[in-house]
């Protein structure tokens, strides 16, 4: 753990689901970070979507044995929660100023400073993917790679802005009512797992619904307001030089956004994986579909699953360790056009 400074300090820390949760005061307010693993290993930063935290956004991926062995063997994982999205968070007053997306990205930099991390791998989902992409454009030297799931990169369309505005008003006046929860579940999951009048909801949707009931509505409102006033990153994407792996569900509301983002990043550094019969939250709905592309992606950094290499990485990642022949999407095992993978769905 890095030493605290006058502007970034540790507030409280507690044990949480096998990891240690830290409350850190940043330049723009407190933020919760749950840390799992050996601090001597390379760092993986995660950031969830609206109304989610690391347990509801990344649990499916990290509970998948093959993915867990790949990620936890190679990284110390730092799960950053948006302000007020951590487990048991107190409500944030609506009188507290809403943070801009740039301020949220700067919070990530403060977290890295606190833990003494010079450069990191990043994994984000939708709104969280936007924050980490923005962080990568502002602090290019601190990001070694991006793994993005159904990412946002443009300013909201009028349709998205309108729906978010309606949801913001519902949150403000009525809290996490049934309409808000249904809208969020549609944002996260495909119809196949949301169920219908004839087919019950899947376990992952039921679990997410339960977790949404525990969230503070004003805290969701704050993050939604920030994201609804985000700016377009398209021009900045052209300057990104870190390798980027993008996953998007075939049925994701943000499918076109992911395709647009892929087209704007240098094709030498970016690949897109489309997951069939899946919504935006690939990490929960079809985490197995992420395994093989992530394996090839991380091989470019000299990182392998423990069955392939028994040595555990003990030093920060460095771009110099990437073999030149692994820099192209073809050598990552990923085609330049979207790959479609289909996973069998449990009924």
UniProtKB/TrEMBL annotation:
Where do the TM regions start and end?
A: 114-136
The organism of origin for this protein: Rhynchospora pubera
Which PANTHER family does this entry report, sorted A to Z? N-MYC DOWNSTREAM REGULATED
**Does the record carry Transmembrane as a key word?**
yes
Q: Which family does it belong to?
A: Belongs to the NDRG family.
Pfam families per UniProt: Ndr
Residues spanning the signal sequence: none
Transmembrane helix listed as a keyword: yes
Q: What is this protein called?
A: N-MYC downregulated-like 3
- Give the record's keywords alphabetically: Membrane, Transmembrane, Transmembrane helix
State the InterPro entries in the record.
Answer: AB_hydrolase_fold, NDRG
């Amino acid at each position: 753990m890095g030493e605290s400074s006058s502007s970034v300090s540790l507030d409280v820390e507690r044990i949480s689901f096998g990891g240690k949760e830290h409350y850190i005061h940043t330049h723009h307010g407190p933020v919760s970070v749950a840390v799992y693993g050996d601090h001597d290993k390379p760092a993986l930063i995660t950031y969830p979507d609206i109304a989610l935290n690391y347990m509801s956004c990344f649990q499916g991926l990290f509970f998948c044995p093959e993915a867990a062995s790949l990620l936890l063997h190679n990284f110390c994982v730092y799960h950053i929660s948006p302000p007020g999205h951590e487990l048991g968070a107190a409500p944030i007053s609506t009188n507290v100023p809403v943070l801009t997306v740039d301020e949220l990205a700067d919070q990530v930099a403060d977290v890295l400073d606190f833990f003494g991390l010079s450069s990191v791998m990043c994994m984000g989902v939708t709104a969280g993917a936007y924050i980490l992409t923005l962080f990568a454009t502002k602090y290019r030297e601190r990001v070694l790679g991006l793994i993005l799931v159904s990412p946002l990169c443009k300013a909201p369309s009028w349709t998205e802005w309108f729906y978010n505005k309606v949801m913001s008003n519902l949150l403000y006046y009525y809290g996490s009512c049934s309409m808000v929860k249904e809208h969020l579940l549609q944002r996260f999951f495909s119809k196949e797992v949301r169920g219908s009048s004839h087919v019950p909801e899947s376990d992952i949707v039921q679990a997410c619904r339960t977790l949404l009931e525990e969230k503070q509505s004003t805290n969701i409102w704050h993050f939604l307001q920030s994201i609804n006033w985000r700016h377009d990153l398209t021009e900045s994407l052209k300057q990104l030089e870190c390798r980027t792996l993008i996953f998007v569900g075939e049925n994701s509301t943000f499918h076109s956004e992911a395709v647009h983002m892929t087209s704007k990043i240098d094709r030498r550094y970016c690949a897109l994986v489309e997951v069939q019969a899946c919504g935006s939250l690939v990490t929960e709905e079809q985490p197995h579909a992420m395994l093989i592309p992530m394996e090839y992606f991380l091989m470019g950094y000299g990182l392998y699953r423990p069955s392939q290499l028994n040595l555990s990485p003990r030093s920060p990642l460095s771009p110099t360790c990437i073999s030149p022949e692994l820099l192209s999407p073809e050598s990552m095992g990923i085609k330049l056009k979207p790959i479609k993978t289909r996973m069998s769905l449990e009924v």
